[in-house]
Amino acid sequence: MLLWLLLLILAPGREQSGLAPKAFLLLTPPWSTHFKGQKVTLKCRDSRYPAWGDVSWYYNKNLMREESGEIQIKKSGYYKCKTQVSSFSDPVHVEFLSDWLILQASHPVFEGDKVLLRCLGKEEGIPSEKIYYKDGKKLGSTYSTEAIILNSVSLENSKYHCTVSRKDFWSSWKETSKPLRIQVQELFPPPVLTASPSQPIEGSPVALKCETWLPPQKSDTQLQFCFFREDQALGSGWSSSSELQISAIWSEDSSSYWCQAKTVTHSVIKRSLKSQILVQRVPVSDVNLEIQPSGGQLIEGENLVLICSVAKGTGTITFSWHREGTIRILGRKTQRSLSAELRIPTVKESDAGRYYCAADNIHGPILSKLTMVTLRIPMSRPVLTIRAPKAQAVVGDVVELRCEAWRGSPPILYQFYHEDATLGRSSAPSGGGASFNLSLTAEHSGNYSCEADNGLGAQHSDRVTLNVTVPVSRPVLTLNPAGTQPVVGDVLELRCEAQRGSPPILYWFYHDNATLGKILAPFGGGTSFNLSLTAQPSGNYSCAADNGLGIQCSEVVMLNFTVPSRSKIILITVGVISGLLSILGLTATAALVCKFKTQRKSRGLSTTGTPGLLCNAALAFILCHIPSDTLLKNSRRLLDYSPNECQEPSLSKPFSTDTQEPTHSELPALMELQPVYSNVNPGDSDLVYSQVRSTQPTKEHLANSPRMHWEHEGSTVIYSEVKKTHPDDSAGQASSGGWAHEDATESYENVPCASMALDH
Prior knowledge:
Blueprint: H1 2-10, E1 24-28, E2 33-35, E3 40-45, E4 56-59, E5 62-63, E6 70-73, E7 77-82, E8 92-97, E9 101-105, E10 109-110, E11 115-121, E12 130-134, E13 137-142, E14 148-150, E15 160-167, E16 172-176, E17 184-185, E18 192-196, E19 206-211, E20 223-229, E21 232-233, E22 243-246, E23 255-263, E24 269-271, E25 275-277, E26 285-292, E27 297-299, E28 304-312, E29 317-323, E30 331-335, E31 339-344, E32 353-360, E33 366-367, E34 371-376, E35 383-387, E36 398-404, E37 412-418, E38 421-428, E39 433-439, E40 446-453, E41 459-460, E42 464-466, E43 476-480, E44 491-497, E45 505-511, E46 514-521, E47 527-532, E48 539-546, E49 551-553, E50 557-559, H2 566-584, H3 587-602, H4 610-625, H5 628-633, H6 637-640, E51 687-694, H7 699-704, H8 707-711, E52 717-724, H9 731-736, H10 738-745, H11 753-759
Parallel strand pairs: 2-8, 10-17, 27-34
Antiparallel strand pairs: 1-3, 3-6, 4-5, 4-7, 7-8, 9-11, 11-14, 12-13, 12-15, 15-16, 18-19, 19-22, 20-21, 20-23, 23-24, 23-25, 26-28, 28-31, 29-30, 29-32, 32-33, 32-34, 35-36, 36-39, 37-38, 37-40, 40-41, 40-42, 43-44, 44-47, 45-46, 45-48, 48-49, 48-50, 51-52
Helix pairs in contact: 2-11, 3-4, 4-11
């Protein structure tokens, strides 16, 4: 007996009442209605199929003596059975009738199944129409013994019957079967919802289970399940699983829960009763505030993260964050978790201080301990200022370079730069600015900057330009062209240049004590002054340079200027004539002219005779017929030509100065020549004079003539010694002495051939 009870308890699929699954009956043949006299076999089955052990049979609730798993019956009534591991089966009503016409229904029939109805006569003769009815309403008809099918029957109390028409030789009539109630069995009982645990703690998981079972003969039927809280479906809706796992349940989830089960074909659907689930809440405890970055050390501009957590506490917790000394709440969050965080972006210097947080889940707020937050401030961009003793920085001044950043945590290291070179560094342990003193030299002009660094990133200042004014050095005066002898009409360049000095520089040019002019060099360097030489260019020349820091004067440069004499002009002209005659092959003609002149002198001819005319005529011929470019190409020969018969002695000795090669355009302008007179002083004297020229000086002549010429000449009539005679000289000696004899006797002929040629 104890073994039977143990098997009953441990049997799979037992329902919530603690009873074992039902046994079930099988009929052979599978009809619930038969003709009287026929036999039907009953088989008792349970989940083990076939039944194990003794079977108890009941007929109309009375225990029968049979104990086998199968019995044969032939009496109408209700039959049921029970095995050692099952509960009682549903009763089956088997009926044996003596009627001519019966209506049979298939067995067993479950909810949602199809049912076969067969109208059967005791003696089947000629086929006739059989009509089926449900609750008096016609369902259909057949002309054979075949059954009709009823789809998806349910647990209902409907009555079914059938009719058939009969006739014989004499008459016809209608047969009607006895009403039949179809015995529909329950496919599965209403489900039962269970929760585990039945009283969960807030925040803990809960498992919901929707329990029901299927009879063994319908174990292949597929069911679906759905869980509800009040009228809201949980999870993903309908599912083939009879369980639902809730990961965390909260106090507000306390409510009524129920479930539904249905077949896949939706033919049968049933719901459970509602079950009340109450969720238990745990108060918060051990509130803690954590700061990130760790340690509470931040750099201005970083993000501050405040994490508030609790060791215990369930349900919805409200977290809030605070800073000591302020009433305003920094932030508040309500959520179902044991921790929450508040992010303060881009912290400022004013965000430093002590922080705390609070947590509450309806039982009252719990506060954390105070936590300190400190900030380090990166350097702002420094400002560089240059302080000079005067408005304009001058070489030798001591200037102060002041670098200061308005914000930044100390200590601060400052570095000073000139262009890209480091000048020095200075530290500010307590913050603020720093200075660097610099003694200025000429090389200190340029761009200056500074850098500030406190370990959080260096910052550079803007560039500041410092212009160091350099006093001008002593200038140097040079004459250009150098090393040549200038003549009247030349343009002489006076170049004055100071090697050092800040621009702009003003240059002054002086001749003796007179100012020639001034020129500004806005960008520094030297400058030039062009002087057109007049009659008096000789003297002392100098220049001065000034850039506002003091005038510097150059050394004096002396210029000696020589006025070209008439004899020199004749010398130059004859040189040109000789050069050109040699080029043109006129050497023979020149020789004849010179020979003729020599003979004339030996005979004591007049100084105004034919040779002078011949020389003038030859020179005029050359100047008129020789191209000017040929004369220019041979202009250099003017200075290299030696005296000849057409040259007259110089009126005065030239001043010693460096010679210069004049070009054709640089020849000095000659004074206007007057008529020539001969033998103005005839008599017995040994000397014969001839007037060479009569000058009438004008302003223009004074301006274009050399200054030294007019200082040594007071008369407007110029005479030249023509011939000195000696009593012991003879005409033959005079004619045969040649050049040497003529020089010894100082016998000259004053012929103005050069002047005439040039005028031509």
